[in-house]
Amino acid sequence: MEREVDVIVLGGGPVGENVADRTRAGGLETVIVERELVGGECSYWACIPSKTLLRSAAALRAARRVSGAAEAITGSLDVAAVLRRRDYWVSDWTDTGAVGWLDSVGIELERGSGRLDGPRRVVVERSDGTEVTLVARHAVVVSTGSDPVVPPIPGLVEARPWTSRDATSAKDPPARLAIIGGGVVATEMATAYAGFGTEVTLLVRSRLLGGFEPFAGEAVAAGLRGLGASVRLGVEPTKVERTEQGEVVITLDDESSVTADEVLVATGRTPRTRRIGLDTVDLEPGAWLDVDETMLVHGATGDGDWLYATGDVNHRALLTHQGKYQGRAAGDVIAARAKGTRVDASPWGVHAATADHAAVPQVVFAEPECVAVGLTEAAARRAGIEVRIGDVAMESASGAGILADGYEGRARLVVDAGRGVVVGATFVGQDVAELLHAATTAIVGEVPVDRLWHAVPAFPTMSEVWLRLLEDLGRPEAAA
Ligand SMILES: Cc1cc2nc3c(=O)[nH]c(=O)nc-3n(C[C@H](O)[C@H](O)[C@H](O)COP(=O)(O)OP(=O)(O)OC[C@H]3O[C@@H](n4cnc5c(N)ncnc54)[C@H](O)[C@@H]3O)c2cc1C
Ligand SMILES: NC(=O)c1ccc[n+]([C@@H]2O[C@H](COP(=O)([O-])OP(=O)(O)OC[C@H]3O[C@@H](n4cnc5c(N)ncnc54)[C@H](O)[C@@H]3O)[C@@H](O)[C@H]2O)c1
């Protein structure tokens, strides 16, 4: 069977859903092809379950840090209740709600595995074994996401390691968990499982949270140790073995070994592009999809602008919110190109995902929270920017001390001295996540640092750290 539609979105994760929402809002008949659950990795095995697994212990720690509330705590974390709350938030791994939303806005769902079959053509193998070929009048958008990388460490695959899916969907925390990697998944899952009382060992080849300011990783190493986790920096596994007793033994390059009940591999992602027919349009199977600012894939065969890639699969920023932002730009540009209306792909134009380069916000929900947007000091210097740094302790804001007794944290602003604007910000400490958006707004809006002195943070909130940062940078002189 073969049928024509306006737009085919391959992959119904959070990003594919957003693309489809914009193309159908633009009046285009849109079909999402999804082989598992509408909502994708984020909803069922990534963002949502990981954050719900983290939240209860974080709330308990927060209460313990406030004298008066701490005395009221008489019990410990109810792990079974945490897992039940996680199950609720992932809808017990069913997508009835998400499918209901597709129906309500008029997006069609084709349930099955899709692959390209030449320009504009997608073959869908349905779960019942039948096949349908969809032909796109205007566009095909690949939003198939990414899979975890399992590095070629001898014995690792045979030892049946956990990946992020196992860690976020576990029914019963293991007594001992070793984690290979020092990035976002590793630090968040170490925080979650240490909170459950699991004996966590983190095996990190360099430092924690490599893409962040160095003080972020240092704070998380200290925070995790404070939760009882062992953080081993500068080690690499050389061999992994699952014993007959079911334990996992990980041998390290310093000849020591770690024994655990499970080992979680958290060493980055690989694109889900191996079996989606990229070879039929002259692209390389298994590669990240290289796109322009409107998410149009470079180098695909076929007439006209027809192949787009959004979300993890284009490797611009492996984050749900950033992929959804790309999805809005791509969906709108597809509709504009279909109708022949004006396309604005200039920097910060409605159809360009400019923020992917300038202002990608990220919140790491570890102990403590680490949040950042834009450039680190080192990245700004590498980019040739003349840098001024504002650096203060979070507790310099009275709001921090009121939030938690003995509050400790740190904040940094990276300023482009030439342009007089903020190009990067990092905050580390309890409950700093909500501070981030002000920094994102300052960067995207290119608000002059001198003008920020007129953005008065309320007393006594944590936002007063902005004032402390400005004071550290120095009060401006009156204009001549
Ligand atoms: C443990 C963990 C925690 C995370 N936490 C956060 C967080 O807190 N905040 C954040 O912003 N990001 C977080 N991320 C990253 C986030 O999950 C991803 O950036 C996001 O899921 C990407 O969305 P996507 O739609 O591109 O891909 P996905 O969510 O992976 O969705 C892709 C969809 O495509 C479908 N698909 C693939 N191939 C085919 C095919 N051939 N045919 C049909 N369907 C197909 C898949 O079944 C899937 O539903 C986390 C990641 C992990 C691993
Ligand atoms: N809160 C959030 O925003 C959030 C949470 C989780 C994941 N994510 C996203 O998901 C993506 C995947 O996360 P991740 O933690 O898997 O990747 P990552 O890139 O953040 O970290 C990978 C880590 O693995 C290490 N590593 C890589 N290869 C290795 C090897 N062979 N041996 C030992 N260590 C090795 C790296 O040094 C690094 O510490 C990230 O891009 C992240 O942005 C976001």
Automatic annotation (TrEMBL):
Binding positions for NAD(+)?
Answer: 181-188, 268
Establish whether keyword NAD is in the entry. yes
GO term, biological process aspect, one? 2-oxoglutarate metabolic process
Name the Pfam families for this protein: Pyr_redox_2, Pyr_redox_dim
Q: Which cysteines are joined by disulfide bonds?
A: 42-47
Which InterPro entries does the annotation name? Class-I_Pyr_Nuc-Dis_Oxidored, FAD/NAD-bd_sf, FAD/NAD-binding_dom, FAD/NAD-linked_Rdtase_dimer_sf, Pyr_nuc-diS_OxRdtase, Pyr_nucl-diS_OxRdtase_dimer
Q: Which cofactor does it need?
A: FAD
State the Gene Ontology terms under molecular function: dihydrolipoyl dehydrogenase (NADH) activity; flavin adenine dinucleotide binding
Key words, A-Z: FAD, Flavoprotein, NAD, Nucleotide-binding
- Domain FAD/NAD(P)-binding: where? 6-323
Q: How is the cofactor bound?
A: Binds 1 FAD per subunit.
Q: Where is the Pyridine nucleotide-disulphide oxidoreductase dimerisation domain?
A: 360-466
Q: Where does FAD bind?
A: 51, 114, 144-146, 312
Q: Which family does it belong to?
A: Belongs to the class-I pyridine nucleotide-disulfide oxidoreductase family.
The name on file for this protein is Oxidoreductase
- Could you read off the lineage of the organism from its UniProt record? Bacteria, Bacillati, Actinomycetota, Actinomycetes, Micrococcales
